[in-house]
Write the structure tokens for this entry.
Amino acid sequence: MHQPYLSPFNPNDFERPAEFYLAPPAEEYQEPERDITFGKVLWHLLLLALTAVTTTIMGAIFLGGFTVGMMFSFTLLMILGAHEMGHYLAARLYGVRATLPYFLPAPLGVGTFGAFIKMKSAIPNKRALFDIGIAGPLAGFVFIIPAAIIGLYFADPAVGAIGGGDGLVFHDPLLFRAIAKVLGVPRDIQANPIWLASWVGCLVTSLNLLPVGQLDGGHVVYAAFGARWHWIIARVIYVGVIALTVVSYFWDGWMGWAVYVVILTFMLRVGHPRVMDEDESLGFGRKIVTAIGLLVFLLCFMPAPVTF
């Protein structure tokens, strides 16, 4: 039986055939065909409602008020929802069965662990995989831009620490710095709900675009460069994130990357399912979109998102 990633860092693995770097065929994950039922839709709506409650509560606690909590929740859920619907609609376009978005409420932090969809059938070719993978980050980014503009335009100058906590400082991604420079916004500002929601959206987008496993970036790299390079690039990024964890801790006191190292470790072991047509070329247009995806990652990425 095929076993993916038996020895994740064995140099001899580079000489093995490309099939070694693949998880079992996607058909093995396929579930029996089921129609969308009323009960399933209610379950998705219930998770969305619970996430709206938790994000509103955490936004109100963090920013100081129920109204601003609702604004934070609405903006963040719009960004996350756009991201997941980008995946969902692209999957449906190619006839790939996929669930509606699952929103994950959380009692701490920003009130959510994010959202995801689950694909339940084989992906026909690399073009479909690429489009499904990149559609989410690009759709979410389209909503992040106006939210960031509004949040920065109406931001007040900072008084002490940003965000209202003792010593808590948020670091802006390149996107925010560019917008702030165009708008003439001061470097240090007070967090507001729209700004914070777009900031969280940037963080989620950049983490999803890391080219590891079955993250969005992993789908894109697999489709663009193939299984072997997906295997190699994932491990280079994994080592890079470990190094970043150490540097960011001693430089800025940020420990968040340690959690992501654990997540990436799991993803390296899971592997990436095959597509039905492994040989199809993406074409020039999708190579341009690959560069756009890299640009989105660079605009959203923050080496040390928060310091204390």
The two ends are 49 Å apart (CA to CA). The chain has one domain: 36-307. Confidence is low (pLDDT under 50) at residues 1-8, 11-18, 161-165. The beta strands are 102-105, 112-116, 169-170, 306-307.
